[in-house]
Amino acid sequence: MSYNLLKGKKGIIFGALDENSIAWKTAERVHAEGGTFVLTNAPVAMRMGQIKVLAEQTGSKIIPADVTSQEDVENLVRESVEILGGKLDFVLHAIGMSINVRKARHYTDENYSFTAKGWDISALSFHRVMQNLYKADAMNEWGSIVALTYMASQRTFPDYNDMADNKAYLESVARSFGYFFGKEKKVRVNTISQSPTATTAGTGVKGFDAFINYAEKMSPLGNASAEDCADYTVSLFSDLTRKVTMQNLFHDGGFSNTGVSQEVIERFSEE
Asked: Smallest Cα–Cα separation from 123: which of 95, 101, 100, 99?
């Protein structure tokens, strides 16, 4: 069911890789709610995924961009405004990558060149994107910028590795840049701390299947799906949340505020 919440609104969606990704689901929901957008991802990610299929389904243009490149991000912002015919109303940053995780480097044995690259892609890129939007005055008043995060930024999850540090930095950028974007441009900046979700990136984390089952048993409402996250993101892009900014918003079925669940107690009582 759609409500035309984003009718006439336009923006950029980063990170749609395949139909399992939150960015993909969000693009579909934004399209259903009347929004138009440019899709973007790194050239290497575009070769791996099916972003062209999504572009055809939603009538969207694709602009390849390496978010670690200042030139690419400047070009992305400029071309998006040209293609969409004016300033933007929403941006979704759904990007994350840890080379240490991919290379099976333990947190206590990081390769720091891998760490720096992963931080640049996953966290500093959020600042780079917003800085370019800010300097180009590319956002309409009451626009909304959202990035996806995970609560490993605040609590320890051993196998999440250096991505936990990246997410902590990402959330700090949202607060710090959110102040200036709000004060001077009336633009909202928030992060969504999502449940563990079976995306291509999420399933790359060691022990993911066991953890997603644990989170399901810990969450009073169960894990939030990629589709659920897309719905929540649409609400943050809409005019219904115009005074919500600089927040890290938990979207996890109650996991973040649950000390222990009855299911977990019963599981350990069996031993």
From this structure: 95
Query: Contact 237/144 with Cβ under 8 angstroms?
Result: yes
Beta-ladder partners of 38: 12, 61
pLDDT of residue 203: 59
**Cβ contact 52:18 at 8 Å:** no
Residue 114, domain extent: 10-269
CB of 248 closer than 8 Å to CB of 256: no
User: Per the domain annotation, does 156 fall within a domain?
Assistant: yes
The Cα–Cα gap between 124 and 60 comes to 26
Q: Where residue 163 sits, what CATH number does that domain have?
A: 3.40.50.720
Q: Which residues contact 129 (CB under 8 A, 6 or more apart)?
A: 14, 67, 73, 77, 91, 93
Q: pTM higher than 0.85, yes or no?
A: yes
Q: Is 253 strand, coil or helix?
A: coil
Strand order in the sheet with 36-40: 61-62, 36-40, 10-14, 88-93, 139-149, 188-194, 248-251
Residue 190: helix, strand or coil by DSSP?
strand
Which H/E stretch holds residue 189?
strand 188-194
Maximal C-alpha separation, the chain: 63
Residue 159 covered by a domain:
yes
66: left (phi over 0), alpha (psi -120 to 50) or beta: beta
Number of domains making up the chain? 1
Which residue reads 């099916």 in tokens? 50
Q: What are 163-221's pLDDT values in tens digits?
A: 999 999 999 999 999 999 999 999 999 999 999 998 766 555 667 788 899 999 999 99
Residue 5 lies in a domain: no
